[in-house]
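Priority: medium. Attachment 1 of 2:
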């Protein structure tokens, strides 16, 4: 879980930092991007989704979008 959280934090933090100006917060930006990208996977992965889906959606999924 720690490894997954770290990956999400690092990748999400970078993406959120770039778009945190629009949202107004790293946490809000990360959550907003995740929910906007995959609304059904946003709350689910917070509950405990497989590590394969987390980095996949957060990394390559949020970067190009």
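Attachment 2 of 2:
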């Amino acid at each position: 879980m720690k490894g997954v959280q770290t990956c999400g934090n690092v990748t999400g933090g970078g993406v959120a930092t770039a778009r945190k100006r629009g949202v107004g917060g790293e946490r809000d930006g990360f959550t907003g991007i995740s929910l906007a990208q995959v609304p059904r996977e946003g709350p689910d992965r917070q509950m405990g989704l497989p590590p394969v889906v987390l980095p996949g959606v957060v990394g390559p999924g949020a970067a190009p979008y």
